[in-house]
Write a structure and sequence with these properties.
Blueprint: H1 2-31, H2 33-48, E1 50-55, E2 66-69, E3 74-79, E4 94-103, E5 109-114, E6 119-127, E7 130-135, E8 138-144, E9 151-152, E10 167-169, E11 179-182, E12 190-193, E13 195-196, E14 205-207, E15 215-219, E16 229-232, E17 235-236, E18 242-243, E19 246-249
Antiparallel strand pairs: 1-2, 1-8, 2-3, 3-4, 4-5, 5-6, 6-7, 7-8, 9-11, 10-11, 12-13, 12-15, 14-15, 16-19, 17-18
């Protein structure tokens, strides 16, 4: 009898446990709250990624002059005085960096965690390319810089700039047309065929180097001199040391020697 009672008790416990497990799973699957919250959070975070600049319109507080929210959840921000034209302006910049997270609570909340251990919380709202930060009674509007593939530049007031690491290219940027933000091409990369269709990285120029005559490549330009000076070719001295090209004043003799 004792053995039968013990077996019955164990069986009843197992059934009760299984019933609880089934009940819990059903509740999780049926609620949908957790999945919707994660999806909403992911959507909010994606909409916040970008580089932002202070915008005076509708702003009552200067939390940040520039704010960069990275896709890797790192952030960097600078704050400096915003002064009216013609007024004396103090020269100081406060830099801050760390990590960020966002939640959908209260319509959207941005949490900044600085590298110094400080935490800041802002109400946040994204509307087109405008970011609104709120904290207490303070409100700041920030304009997002253009990303790759978005319109930029043009002959207009407050023309939209590209985010850091991206170049506004329109070939050429004339009138109010502006251009498109594009990732710059490094040395040796193609920048077009017959006509340039991609920007080169800083310090490089687009032109024919080798291959088909119409092919264009980003390359280091030949050395140039300021007006009124001569450009001398690179040369090799008597010890075999190669000296890079450089400039000398007009009228002076360029150093001679075998080419490197």
């Amino acid at each position: 009898m004792r053995s039968l009672f013990t077996s019955t008790l164990l069986l009843a416990s197992a059934l009760a446990f299984a019933g609880c497990a089934v009940s819990d799973k059903t509740a999780d699957d049926g609620s949908g709250d957790t999945t919707e919250t994660k999806d909403a959070l992911s959507s909010l975070s994606k909409s916040l990624v970008g580089s932002y600049d202070y915008s005076a319109t509708g702003t009552t507080s200067n939390f940040y002059t520039t704010l960069v929210l990275g896709a890797d959840l790192s952030y960097a921000a600078d704050t400096r005085p915003v002064c009216s034209p013609g007024m004396a302006c103090p020269m100081w910049i406060r830099h801050e960096e760390g990590t960020w997270t966002s939640t959908t609570s209260h319509g959207g909340t941005l949490h900044l965690h600085t590298s110094l251990g400080e935490s800041k919380t802002f109400g946040v709202l994204v509307s087109g390319t405008d970011l609104r930060l709120t904290q207490g009674s303070g409100v700041e509007h920030m304009a997002r810089r253009a990303k790759i593939g978005e319109h930029c530049g043009g002959n207009m007031a407050n023309a939209r700039q590209c985010e850091v690491g991206v170049i506004c290219f329109g070939g050429p940027l004339v009138g109010d047309v502006g251009g498109t933000c594009m990732k710059p091409v490094g040395e040796g990369g193609s920048c077009g065929f017959r006509t340039q269709n991609a920007p080169c990285a800083d310090g490089l120029e687009c032109g024919h180097v080798s291959g088909p005559l119409d092919s264009l490549t980003c390359h280091t330009p030949a050395p140039t001199c300021p007006s009124g000076q001569h450009s001398c070719a690179a040369y090799q001295d008597t010890k075999g040391t190669c000296h890079a090209a450089y400039c000398v004043f007009m009228g002076a003799m360029c150093v001679t020697g075998p080419a490197c």
